[in-house]
Amino acid sequence: MSDETITSIAHVIQLSVAPVFLLSGIAALLNVLTNRLSRIVDRARNMEAQFPNAAPGRIEQLSTSLRRLAKRARWVSWGISLCASSAILISSVVIVLFLDTLANANGRLLVAGLFISAMLALTGGLICFLREIYLATRYLRIGVPEPEQTGTTVVPTRQ
Predict the structure, then answer these.
(1) What is the pLDDT of residues 45-55, one digit of tens each?
(2) Domain, as residue range, for 63
(3) 3-state SS class at 116
């Protein structure tokens, strides 16, 4: 290898550092999304297990909650797919940078196209994440559940 080739490879390695850091950020986001999906699935399974012993009023509430969880799971799943696609495209950018240097080709347009596609996919994944967060907080109820939600009756006490 000539000194010029080694220098150009070293330059490509320098150019690859930013996409690799971006991959680390995407990996962290994927971790958050997969954890959210896991929690949604666990919660749905818990609700499904309540059906056999649930009171009629509770069954309707459980069905509504399950539909909401399914919608949230779809949004998280789309976010995971888009973020994973973004990571694949970023990896492709690094690969094309190295191949471009080794083959003395001109892959500027391909690198730019891959990077723009990666950013669009990442943006889509973040939008899906925000939508799922919105849905999670939209149906959030904090406080003591109503009797029809728990399947128990509340007996008033004298004070």
Answers:
(1) 999 999 899 88
(2) 18-141
(3) helix
